[in-house]
Amino acid sequence: MEILRFTFMQRALFIGLIVGVLGATLGVFVVLKRLSFMGAGISHAAFGGIALGYFLGWDPILTAVIFCISVGIGISMLIENNRIKEDTAVGIFFTSTMALGILLIGLKEGYNIDLFGYLFGNILAVGREDLVISLAIGAIIAFSLYFFFKELILSILDPEMARVIGLPVSFLNHLLVALIALFIVISVRIVGIILVSALLTIPAATALQWSKNLRKVLVLSSIDSLGCVLGGLALSYYLDTSPGATIVILATLVFFTTFLLPLPLKKK
Amino acid sequence: MQEPIIEVKNVSFYYPPLEVLEDVNLTVKKGEFLAIIGPNGGGKTTLLKIILGLLKPQKGEVYIAGKRVEELGKWRSKIGYVPQTAQIDYTFPITVEEFVMTGRFGLIGLGKRPQAHDWEMVRKALREVKMEEWSKKQIGELSGGQRQKILIARSLALEPEILILDEPTTAVDPESSESFYELLLRLHEQGITIITVSHDVGVVAQYVDSIACLNRRLIKHDRPEEVIREGVLEEMYGREAAFFHHGAIPHIVVRETPPER
Fold first, then answer.
1. Full-prediction pTM beyond 0.90?
2. What residue in A sits closest to B71 (Cα-Cα)?
């Protein structure tokens, strides 16, 4: 395989593997809990986090991790008592964190930050440390989803019953949001801030059309997502297109193809 | 049989400016089978939610097994609850047996998966409500009455010490409703404490140890027959209520006028 000769491509495919599986799995929770817009909101907040890192001279990715988790939990606390509606809270943070990012970059004189790369992904910029960070954060996400699997399911399905039997529902809500934030930060290099929430939405939404069995949904979502992420990366290499955009368009095509298939073919 | 397991002490609850519960006191003994009756808007569901710790009253305290309900901890996993209207997304990709299993999640504990024994309890609960042949179906495929049955099965699957039911037979056909009360009676005989909210005083009066009448204020009658005599119902539902009896079972007809506040 010609494309595997390049180190950057090997790294991108490695991260794509992690991102593909985790996005698909986490995405099933996101779609079932109707957090797709929340995902988009937090991913845009990553821009503010990265800019903040540059401004303060800290590691931009690690700053973005902390910033996104804070914003995510902030939103989730604001909406907890229904004082502010979820879409309103997301709408406010979505824009204000991006505004903060633009402001901070403007204030930092002589900046040479690869803005475009963060916004739309840049697989050439994937470094060795990105592999380590992705692996570490990926392990945290995978472990959390495994460990809290049944608790997350019940807190999404029937939060009232979850509280009755003593599950820490508000912790679980914050956890899910924190995991979304972590996922976004490791996927930014490949698909970019603007498109990253697609990975949390489209494969899961596609899989949910195919099956009403949670285990099958998780498997199908992972297969779809891996296919689209790895296939999209390869395709973008040969077509010389943007990897992030290629992945998202591919996933969208699969989604609509599934959507248009006659029902008896799908539901088993 | 004698020690109190649920104690509601001086509980008042407001949805300002509306007073929903006024200085409610209620003691339920271990193993008691109690029905709470009363008009719509009388605060029945609110009281159940306060007992469960889902709502916090502005005044008063609830104790379960001697502990404040806020500090129940692990004991919570022994309480089965059937809500009147569960806010469940029935398109959720989960089968009937998996759904019933969620009732045991508190018992199973964090980070652990259901074991053979847990599945055995789920099958037993599904048998109790005669839904075992539906166990592999997705929950969205069920009818209203069947959905109610799996909610009941979920509350049974956790082998409850306390069972709290909010109008459990609303969507269920009369035949299932009768066999359901027979089931509650069997559980009662096993020593489970049961609180059920019901509209149908005539039906529950045959089964329960005691009846509490709730219309903002609560009056408990340790002999269900008292409720049927002595004008208790007239007082609670107002003068618009009319009664007629056939056999031993009185029926209530309430004119559709909102209760005075």
1. no
2. A166
